[in-house]
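Worked example (supplementary).
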Amino acid sequence: MESIKDKVAIIGMGCSKFGENWDKSADDMIIEAAYEAYEDAGIEAKDIGAAWLGTYVTEWTGQMLSRALKLDYIPVTRVENACATGSDALRNACYAVASGACDIALAVGVEKLKDSGYTGLPDFELLRRQSNTYRTRTYSPPGHFAMMATKYFDRYGLSPEEGKKVIGQIAVKNHHNGALAPKAHFQAETTLEKVLAAPMVAWPLGLFDCCGVSDGAAAAIVTRADLAKNFRADPVYIKALQIAVGPYEGYMSPKYDWCHVEETVRAGERAYAEAGIKNPREEISMAEVHDCFTITEMVIMEDLMFSERGKAPDDVRSGFFHLDGGLPINTDGGLKCFGHPIGASGLRMMYEVYKQMQQKADKRQIKNPKLGLTHNLGGTPATCSVSVIIAGNEKG
Amino acid sequence: MTGIVAYAAYLPLYRLARAEIGRAWGSGGKGEKAVASHDEDSLTMAVAAARECLKGQGGRKVDGIFFASTTAPYREKQAAATIAAVLALPAETYTADFGGSLRSGTNAVRAAVDAVKSGSLKNVLVLVADCRLGMPNGASEMAFGDGAAAMLIGSEGVLASIDSMYTMADEIIDVFRSDRDRFVHAWETRFIRDYGHGRVMPQAMKDAAMKAGVALADFARVIMYSPDQRQLQAVTKTMKLDPAKVQDSFFNEFGDTGAAQVFISLAAALEQAKAGDKLMLAAYGNGADVFALTAAPAIGTWKPSRAISYYMNTKLQINTYEKYLRWRQVIELEPAATAPMEQPSPVALWRDNKSGLNLHGVKCRKCGTPQYPAQRVCMECGSKDDFEDYSFSDKPAVLATFSHDSLGISADPPTTVSAVDFEGGGRITCDMTDRDPSEVKIGMPIEMVFRVLRYVGGFYTYWWKARPKRD
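After joint prediction of all chains, the assembly is encoded as:
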């Protein structure tokens, strides 16, 4: 089997301001992200051969992308893969240029959530009539991820109070990073005391254990690796593109332990194999992972083999994942602070990886960047879609 | 001989102290009342009673389900048919609903006895449940409690024979609820005392005793419907009955449980009865139905696994009257800033009746793995369409993990989300009900209960929930 490694490069990226963008429509944010990407790549709309729009609930059809950007009758397709939607849009664009179907492809992710009037995410399962039957769940995303916290604490002998102190430090770290990111939804430091005193959302998770619900868009322009230097001196090369989608096993089988996410393990293993990575903890320079909740980030550290099983709390406590630590995680604040417009998140993560690889991350810049990783988790710990994408600043 | 071959009561876990109702309205109150949980109604309570009653009756073919209540969930749509589906009874089961009166329970028992005697049916499960509402700050609100009972009527292995059935019709507007009202209304207490219950019951019970050929004094136990303690005492006095022989109606423990009241009391009486004991049961509601029963020699051979004392001892207080108002939807709350629930598809529900109503999953014939809901491709070994039916409803289970979700849609927040692992295999993720959040622990024993999941678009969606084992 061939690998995607070094066949595709990102030559331009853009990202709108994330947040409660009351004064911006989805089209406005698409334009903001796409034109930044055009300028960054030094191209115009007419240079694009095909485009993918990632959106989870904002629109049914990809036609909105062509409408907003006035694309020139090129193929446009909407893709959806839960919270991995943006990453899947990028994956499709990469496959298109790798196949030679076109030279330049555009991937855009967008979500407009704050027109709904809801404080949290809408309960998507209840919105669909077809699958709306007896077993329809009446609980929220935090409720599902909180079950993982309960079980993780129990398994590793942490009292709920001790456990909350550990995951609370993840919120503090991501707030610190978010405060350094001008486009982030939340740009304020916080303290562990504040995190622990926050109201409960889904016990044992409090408000600061949960990511923001935001509006936003992000865009990437990709081309074949051998063409990349025609556009810029510092393209970022795709090393691995993996997605794993679970068969609902966690909800049906007592074998599922609620202390890991099988989809992350599978997608991670395949991505490391594709990129030729043997020791992720040592070889990955930085990662943007799906910290929809603080407990999720902690468990991802183990699933992606950054920490040994049961040892992520030690790495969290030691600051290993801080900006100046051994493996900086969510350098732009993550979902927690940069925000989580679902369809845009995967591309927003790649925006940060891209800037870090190009040494353009300003106050957030890590030292000696070589390989960055993005990870999305769409669904719940028991069943989900997970994407793992690895990119680097050197062509192997 | 025709009569009761099995019986059981069901009382919800929750109690509301009358003093707490009094606290809200600046009055007093003695005792407490049983209150259906926010996700219970007469249908689900009937199911709970039915499941208790049928424990150990596996060999007995139930061919009739009669549901009796003044508070059926639908005006048009049969509860008995739903219950037959929940109990996985065959389609040829004769199902019927009885309603309109607190005598609906005795109406149903009489019909069942007649059917068994005539040979048209063999074993009829009569389920009586009520969940009546009184208006806030009224006497009915103080009095009414919620509960259910099940009586399996048959002619083999009879525990208590029903020897004689007397009835009396009586037109009076004393206690009523029109088709336009949620609340039960009662005319002046003195009118009811003198010309309603107080006139009809003594007359009917005397006539019934005469018809049965048993002197009133020879009944070891007299069970009669009464709206409250005072009226029970008044009729006892009028009839010169020995108070020691009059069965307590549990007014201070459960409240006036409507049509179910006399059957909950009968269950208590049967638990204590000795072979040969004569029992009188009198129900009231626009007249009276009075039965004369005799405890059969087999009376001691079977007892419900959950006795009345069990329901008295396993309880949880509803701490505030406001919570009660919320559960019964007497007050309307500001909707949460979240997506409203959409109407489920009756088509999707219908396709899914077996796994939804009966908690049926499948067990793979190749690898033996139980799975819920029913699958077509085995989660474990990948074989296709090679399964047998497998019911999870009565399997012992433990809690694998949980959370308390404040954003979940519930009248009793937070929603306790639970992953339940079953002995013998299989996992179900569902809501947990009847729990004290601070007591929920990983590994605790769980039992599955049938509850209202939601009411959207004009119909009820029932499903199963996890509950910490009630004991």
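Two points are worth noting when inspecting this output. The domain at 8-111 of chain A is CATH 3.40.47.10 (Peroxisomal Thiolase; Chain A, domain 1). The two ends of chain A are 18 Å apart (CA to CA).
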